[in-house]
């Protein structure tokens, strides 16, 4: 299971840094200076862990400097925070590797599949690092940057990515209560595998240095190598080019491996015989708190409610009224040429009022333009456009209506989602946490007028899963899908209390309102639920507290003393 753990996420940021030479803090050309140990962890058994100045500077330039630039830390505070993070990571890492060698902690030990994935991630990191030089190369070669704005509709954003659930409420026959079951992480597999660092090196060289078809890739390699050589001069080493690259591969792999150990150790420490340490009562109380805060704010400030519903839906946990509803859509965009023609028509006709061409001629040409709009067809597995295929907007609408006909609401959602990922060209609705929100009143919409009006007609009819006809706009054609009112998934008691219960029975069967939360989707075209949202929040908060207690316990148990040099840089 993947967890948003602070120590790991922090070090995935700055331990993946690949060059020291570019760091402004490296102002001295003194190998002894940079190789000097500036942080020492002394254990009660006499063992030590030492961190060099170069490692500290690498961490500070990527983490500490961010605290200064973005969070108003002083340099002294940022240096202390960097020291604390490095120290905590080393303590966790040592403990993780120790536990991995015990029978009880066998789950922490890296499996063959883990190592396979780490090798692949290392290769991907090396390629990514090399590609960081592309902009500088284009500037040096006086070449314009490639326009990638249109790629959003043909890359990973158009592939459906279901939410990876971390836990699920289940009834425990032993305790006779609902508990939260931690779900197993699905192993990440790749199509490419590497056996060792030598294999990664060979693949990297083939993709960069020896890439006869890509001059950019060859130049990226040259610059990457030059940066490593520059770092080598600072640190006083003398490796040949091949060894420098292999050392960089090993450094990245070691960091990724260490992060994996820490992640597995954190999961091991939170394991409660397969159940989460977070209780159903905690989930319900957390959600009640979220509702109460939202209710207090919006009952007293309707303007904020109306603004947040349209711009910050994620902040709203309580609906003041039933004025808002959800929609999704399939956008079939104008091609670049059609967009130019549309814009030209608007100019010639003075927005349909008549100028160079009459209003009637404007409408005729515009109708012809819309009738020629076609949808690109995408591969549902890869998201890539099948260049040889295109479908008229009318045929897409017909396909949508046929797919939804006679289906249950849930089946309609599944059918529309599949067609949305097949034809849609609006990346904003793909894998979105929430659908689009529109209000019944005149000012309650962020969408274009034609889209808003057609959506309101669907809302007035009130049929879940109904679709509009082809709706014309300045972007192309829309097929709008109605997803019902924005409604509270809970009720209030007669005295105004939020009616969420942890334990009760229906027809003699044990129930809990946590099941309602796990069956209430944030977006019916995706699978993340209110339960998932609340559990994520609790998991993050609880782990921060647990991690702090665990680290303090280890420091006391192992009698760890930390010594930090007076001058870190």
Notes on the structure:
- With 569 residues, the protein is of the alpha+beta class.
- Helices cover 49% and strands 13% of the residues.
- It has helices spanning 6-14, 31-35, 53-71, 75-100, 112-131, 134-140, 197-207, 215-235, 241-270, 280-299, 302-311, 336-348, 359-371, 393-404, 409-423, 449-461, 514-518, 530-557; strands at residues 37-42, 48-52, 167-172, 177-182, 324-333, 374-378, 385-392, 436-439, 471-473, 476-485, 504-506, 509-511, 561-564.
- Strands 8-5-10-9 form a four-stranded antiparallel sheet. Strands 2-1-13 form a three-stranded antiparallel sheet. Strands 3-4 form a two-stranded antiparallel sheet.
- Strand 3 and strand 4 form a beta hairpin.
- Helix 5 (112-131) packs across helix 9 and helix 10 crosses helix 18 (530-557).
- The longest helix has 30 residues, at 241-270.
- Residues 1-24 and 148-156 have low confidence and may be disordered.
Features:
single chain; alpha+beta; disordered N terminus
Strand percentage lies at: 5-15%
* Rg of Cα set: 29 Å
Task: Describe the main β-sheet briefly.
Answer: 4 strands, antiparallel
The helix tally amounts to: 18
Uncertain runs: 1-24, 148-156
The SS-based structural class is alpha+beta
Percent range of helical residues: 40-55%
Mean pLDDT: 89
Largest sheet strand order: 8-5-10-9
Task: Describe the global form.
Answer: globular
Spatial separation of the terminal alpha carbons: 38 Å
């Amino acid at each position: 299971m993947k967890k948003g753990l602070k120590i790991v996420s922090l070090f995935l940021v700055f331990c993946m840094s690949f060059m020291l030479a570019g760091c402004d803090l490296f102002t001295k050309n003194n190998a002894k200076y940079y190789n000097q140990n500036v942080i020492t962890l002394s254990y009660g058994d006499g063992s030590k862990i030492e961190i060099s100045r170069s490692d500290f500077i690498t961490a500070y330039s990527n983490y500490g400097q961010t605290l200064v630039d973005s969070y108003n830390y002083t340099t002294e505070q940022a240096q202390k925070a960097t020291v604390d993070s490095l120290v905590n990571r080393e303590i966790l890492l040592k403990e993780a590797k120790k536990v991995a060698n015990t029978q009880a902690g066998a789950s922490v030990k890296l499996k063959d599949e883990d190592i396979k994935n780490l090798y692949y991630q290392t290769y991907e990191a090396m390629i990514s690092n090399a590609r960081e030089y592309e902009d500088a190369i284009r500037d040096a070669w006086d070449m314009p940057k490639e326009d990638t704005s249109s790629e959003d509709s043909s890359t990973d954003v158009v592939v459906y990515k279901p939410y990876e659930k971390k836990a699920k409420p289940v009834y425990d026959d032993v305790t006779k209560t609902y508990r939260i079951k931690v779900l197993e992480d699905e192993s990440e597999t790749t199509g490419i595998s590497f056996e060792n660092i030598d294999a990664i090196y060979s693949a990297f060289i083939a993709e960069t240095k020896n890439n006869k078809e890509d001059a950019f890739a060859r130049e990226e390699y040259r610059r990457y190598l030059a940066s490593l050589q520059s770092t080598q001069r600072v640190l006083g080493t003398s490796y040949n080019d091949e060894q420098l690259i292999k050392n960089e591969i090993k450094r990245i792999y070691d960091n990724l491996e260490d992060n994996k150990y820490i992640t597995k150790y954190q999961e091991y420490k939170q394991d409660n015989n397969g159940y989460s340490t977070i209780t159903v009562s905690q989930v319900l109380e957390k959600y009640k708190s979220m509702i109460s805060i939202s209710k207090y704010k919006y009952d007293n400030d309707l303007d904020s409610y109306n603004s947040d519903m349209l711009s910050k839906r994620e902040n709203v946990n309580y609906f003041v009224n039933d004025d808002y509803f959800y929609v999704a859509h399939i956008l079939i965009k104008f091609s670049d040429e059609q967009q130019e023609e549309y814009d030209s028509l608007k100019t010639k006709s003075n927005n349909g009022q008549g100028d160079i061409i009459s209003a009637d001629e404007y409408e005729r040409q515009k109708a012809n333009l819309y009738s020629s709009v076609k949808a690109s067809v995408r591969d549902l597995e890869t998201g890539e456009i099948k260049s040889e295929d295109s479908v008229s907007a009318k045929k897409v609408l017909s396909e949508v209506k046929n797919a939804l006909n006679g289906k249950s609401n849930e089946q309609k959602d599944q059918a529309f989602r599949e067609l949305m990922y097949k034809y849609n060209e609006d990346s904003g609705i793909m894998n979105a946490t929430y659908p689009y929100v529109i209000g019944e009143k005149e000012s309650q919409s962020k969408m274009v007028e034609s889209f808003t009006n057609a959506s309101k007609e669907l809302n007035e009819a009130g049929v879940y899963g109904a679709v509009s006809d082809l709706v014309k706009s300045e972007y192309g054609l829309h097929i709008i899908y109605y997803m019902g009112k924005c409604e509270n998934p809970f009720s209030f008691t007669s005295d105004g209390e939020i009616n969420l219960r942890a334990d009760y029975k229906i027809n003699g069967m044990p129930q809990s309102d946590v099941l309602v939360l796990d069956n209430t989707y944030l977006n019916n075209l995706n699978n993340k639920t209110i339960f998932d949202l609340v559990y994520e929040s609790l998991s993050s908060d609880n782990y921060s507290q647990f991690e702090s207690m665990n680290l303090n316990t280890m420091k006391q148990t192992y009698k760890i003393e930390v010594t930090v040099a007076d001058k870190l840089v």
